[in-house]
Amino acid sequence: FILTKLINTVRILSIINLFKRGKGMKSDNLTDNKQHKSIRKPVQKRSIRTKEKILNTAYELFCEKGYYKTTTNEIAQKAGVSIGSLYSYFKDKDVIFFEILGIYHQKFLGLNLELKDNDELLKNDVKKWLRIIIEKQIEIHEESKEFNRELNVLSFYNPKIEALLIQNKKE
Questions:
Q1: Which ranges of the chain have pLDDT less than 70?
Q2: pTM above the 0.70 mark?
Q3: How far is Cα 8 from Cα 35, in angstroms, rounded to an integer?
């Protein structure tokens, strides 16, 4: 079970890296710099909170209803922002999804950094070090179980994500 979770984590991290290189759902749109000029980067606290509220709401809806059954109108309505505000921060639902995926990825990166800083424990007590890794992986998974499930479901219905997973297995 734990090995499967670790393998899934590696698969997710590889998917994120492929999307960062422009091979995602709408790779032409995600890498087109002209279309990103109108997307604003929040600087003020209120704008940052608004963007976070949109991301948190989208995360909840993706987990609850699934990616395909969630609309940007629902995300905006439940977040308490106008649809125009949503689109001022995000080009489309794909961008929202991949930003959430990036946040998910950061949790695992944080775990990796934390473990790298703990070389002494690895040298002195490998079992304890492994136990910490496993417990933290489970903790992260439990926090985002529905999101992980939705990502796996997307891989069955979205040919591009499926192709990324197949390519990932070969590597």
A1: 1-37, 160-171
A2: no
A3: 32
